[in-house]
Specification:
Bound molecules: S-adenosyl-L-homocysteine
Distance between the termini: 23 Å
Number of strands: 15
Order of helices and strands: EEEEEHHHHHEHEHEHEHHEEHEEHEHHEH
Shape: globular
Number of helices: 15
Largest sheet: 8 strands, parallel, barrel
Strand content: 15-25%
Structural class: alpha/beta
Helix content: 40-55%
Length: 432
Amino acid sequence: MCYAIPGKVEAINQKIVTVDYYGEKKKAINEFHELSVGDYIYAQGGYVIAKVSPHQAQEVLTAWQELFFKLQEIDEEKSRFLPDKKARENKVVAIFDRVNNGHQATRDDLRYLLALKKRADLELFFKAANFLRQKYHKNACCVHGIIEISNYCTRNCYYCGISCLNKNIKRYRMSKKEILDSVEEAVVKYGFKALVLQSAEDKDYSIDDLVDIVKTIKERHAVLVFVSFGEIGKRGLEKLFEAGSRGLLMRFETSNPKIYEALHPGYSLESRIEELKYAYKLGYLIITGGLIGLPGQTDEDIINDIYLAKDLNTDMYSFSPFIPHPDTPLAKNPPPDEEKVLKTLALVRFTVPKEAKILVTTGFETLSPSARKEGLASGASSVMLNVTPLKYRPLYSIYPARAHEKDSIDAQIQETIELLKSLGRAPTDLGI
Ligand code: SAH
């Protein structure tokens, strides 16, 4: 299965190319490829990642064509939002109407939506969020892969099972060869076009080691690389950008400095935010967000989290429920209820309807087996598959029994494709 559809270059304006996908026009940034009008390319996250021969492109386009339009039809059908007379009197619909007409939802609107409890109100809210997703993103669903390369950590995050405070876990670090083999498997065998390399804060991997790994990946493969190694400093971000990575995944965890500092003694929220801002300035695509259900967190904090992610020019919003890990200081704190997580995803869609890619996180899938289906039907538009070698996955135990921990890549792809097909979504990222 392929995770992108080739597009035809229609116009070139310096670094910006206009790309045609079955008649739909999108823009992408081209930094590395010699392109002329009429060429075929693959793009991911708004970046051109490969040029493909017309022959190869035609083959994929022909194979996809029928399915592509069929899926779009299913999605359109499923995301229709036609509230009846009674529903039209509901405040949820009044807020939706304003957002749908291009107005910003106010903080009061967000407060109202996040506090909803009645089943009928929630259904309207989720359906409206799904409508907005379809309106702006059509049926595109980003399917990224993630490789967790090390669980050695120097940080003390109170919620995290692999923090340096936990002495009960076996530590692992993938070698450069193991990482490159995993990347090759994901890209060549399985067709991933965007990969996240993630690690705990393992000082045994120097920035130069990571640069070497990213450079080698970029030399060998047409893939968009996201880095997720925590706070690596401005110089680290610059070096990894030069090496060819174009995305940063780093949650700010919470926008409330008091909560942040209570859960990360000795560290400041400000420095994390500084890095996220700097990364955006350098040209990184930003994936960030917060944890839902942290001790002391209020609805107002969650709304602030969404606003902070928006201020950080987030490309993909990643909000996960906090899930307690027995070997951490937060072992006794309960996770949030599923509904709160779903409401947060829908709320992101109401806040940034047009711009946001919204991820259904593995954390949410761990909390609720139907998270993916429900999340994708409530405003979300992206999923991430775990392509870490199976033997290491249980060791990256940020929280216990993570969803898909034991699922082969094959099995995850099968399950994802089946779900996406049933919802009318295409595993593509056509950009904007
Ligand atoms: N060192 C990297 C990666 C950290 S682990 C970084 O700092 O970005 C990846 C993510 O796991 C964290 O950002 C955190 O949001 C999440 N995480 C850790 N413990 C968790 C828990 N108990 N429940 C839910 N998510 C958790």
